[in-house]
Amino acid sequence: MTASRETKARPAETAAFTCAAGGTRARFWFAVAAIVAIGGLLRLLVLVEYIRQSPFATSLRVDAASYWEWAGRIAAGEIQQPTPFFSAPAYPFFLGLIRALGGGLLAVYTIQLVMDLATAVLLAHVGRRRFGAAVGLVGCAVFLLMFDPASSFVRVLASTMQLVLVALAWWQMVRLQERGTTLRCIALGAVLGLFALTYPPAVLLVLAVGIWLLAWSDRWRARIRRAVVVGLSSAVIVAPATIHNWRATGEFIPISAQAGITLYHGNSADATGVYEPAEGVISQKAG
After folding, report:
1. Mean pLDDT per segment of 10 residues, for the chain of length 287 residues?
2. Of 1, 119, 140, 208, which has the fewest Cβ atoms less than 10 A away?
């Protein structure tokens, strides 16, 4: 009789536990929504003030002007250029897509604001999955209170894409750790590849993630398969930049050539610790 009562009680206990967990999850996301709404409102005020008061909102200079002009050529159909990429190409192509669709700088700032808020949501999600709801909420709030993210979304610079891609990579790593499917390996590799196209040194993260995958407590065959799939997925995303550079120069330049120019400046015979012009390179100075 006692065993029968215990058996009957278990479904009710399970249902109560599920309901409590669901309520906790709902409260968490309600809190995240409130934090993000406040952060979004503050950023919207920053955007309005920036457009009204700053001359740089519509008159771009130096790197921002170069990105915008490059995006204009992409929007006009100039995909293959006669020179290798001298900057990570993902952000200029992102701007080129916006320009091709008829968007201007206001559209860029608005999309970057949304990307900024998406980063906060991803941080909350990853923090909750890894360390609990409190960490997720604090991480979300602290990010939205930081000065640099709050002001960088009105810049026309590649860094505006990098934070959201880092957060996406963390999210994909957590998902992969929870369930190591091939599809999740492909997704993680694609995010890492796209991050490398905005920040070339990030190609080293592919190696680091591969080592992380090989360190799992699982069968060696499964570990190797995951690492290989992530690496191949990243390579597929990066490949168009490599092919572009090969067609332009006949040289193997995986993503961009700016590192080589920087090394030339620092190691040339006439270098004195300041910028030393290289033949054929044009210097654009502000003012």
Report:
1. 47 46 76 92 88 79 84 86 85 91 89 93 92 91 87 85 92 89 92 93 90 83 89 94 88 76 56 58 52
2. 1
What is the C-alpha separation between 217 and 195, in angstroms, rounded? 28
- How far separated are the first and last CA of the chain, in Å rounded? 89
Tell me if 98 sits within 8 A of 111, measured CB to CB. yes
Tokens 């891609």 -> residue:
165
Q: How high is the pLDDT of residue 6?
A: 44
Q: Which residues contact 19 (CB under 8 A, 6 or more apart)?
A: none
99 and 71 Cβ atoms separated by less than 8 Å: yes
CA 80, CA 3: separation in Å to the nearest integer?
A: 74
Q: 236, 46, 239, 279: which is closest to 154 by C-alpha?
A: 46
Q: Which CA distances in Å does 244 have to 125, 190, 257, 267, 281?
A: 37, 19, 12, 27, 20
- 277 three-class SS: coil
Residue 279 Cα distances to 26, 158, 181, 265, 276, angstroms: 61, 26, 50, 11, 10
Cβ pair 124, 136 in contact under 8 A: yes
Task: Assess contact for 77 and 123: CB atoms under 8 A.
Answer: no
CA angle 78, 197, 188 (to 5 degrees): 130
Report pTM: 0.78
Helix, strand, coil share (%) of the chain residues, nearest 5? 75, 0, 25
